[in-house]
Amino acid sequence: MTRIPNLALENLTAAQRKAFDIIVASRSPGTVTDAQAETYKNILGTTEQKFNLGGPFTAFLQSPEFAVRTTDMAKFLRFESSLSPRQVELAIIVTARFWTAQYEWYAHAKFAAMAGVEEEIIQAIKENRRPDFTRADDETIYTFCQQLHVDHQVSDKTYQDGIALLGEQGIVELIGLIGFYTMVSMTLNTIKVAVPAGEELPPI
Question: Are 131 and 120 in contact (CB under 8 A)?
Fold first, then answer.
């Protein structure tokens, strides 16, 4: 059971309600693509969820200013950076798997598939295996993320491969993305956000 219960809309403070509305707007049609909005609807229940935003947001709302600032960062990193949706979602599921953040995996494995990441790659990451990559760009993203998580640094070759693929701007944004979803993973694991019954999750 989650350690922080969902907040009823009528019980939100004015600051929490403002943050709530900003979070909802950042995930509503017109802000994200129609396909992304539909997937949010499937995962969260609705793009205008009134009582449960899902994921880490119930925790974030305990600090409304934190919620607002993290929402702005999340919107940039997921939808507005120089990385492609495929690169973004691949990096997120590598991070989710490293932390065994089950809710993050549950949500973002679906987003990764939507972004074109092949089922074979998703399954290998789920099983803690290095995928057999057919695309050099996927392998570069995976290797960079995995080395940074496991070794806490990246090799010169991995860094240069990342620069060749993404440029210095993209590398900085990739590091920021990994860091942000590490924070999300830590939040989800700490407050024990539940995953809907029947989902096939990575082994702990």
Answer: yes
Query: Is residue 145 within 8 Å of 178, Cβ to Cβ?
Result: yes
Q: Domain map of the chain by residue range?
A: 9-80, 85-190
Could you give the count of Cα atoms lying within 13 Å of 96 in the half-sphere of its Cβ?
A: 27
Rounded to whole angstroms, how far apart are CA atoms 184 and 98?
Answer: 12
Closest by CA position to 109, among listed 118, 189, 147: 118
Distance CA 109, CA 34 (A): 18
Residue 2 CA, distance from chain mean position: 19
**Topology given in CATH for the domain delimited by 85-190:** AhpD-like (1.20.1290)
CA atoms within 13 A on the CB side of 81: 26
- At 24, the amino acid letter reads V
Could you tell me if 121 and 138 are in contact, meaning their C-beta atoms sit under 8 angstroms apart? yes
C-alpha 199/C-alpha 191 separation (Å) is 19
Q: Which two tokens stand for residue 50?
A: 């009134």
Q: φ and ψ at 29, to 5 degrees?
A: -55, 140
pLDDT tens, position by position, 14-48: 999 999 889 888 875 444 445 544 544 544 444 44
Q: Which residues 6+ apart lie within 8 Å of 162 measured at CB?
A: 140, 144, 154, 170, 171, 174
**Reported pTM:** 0.86
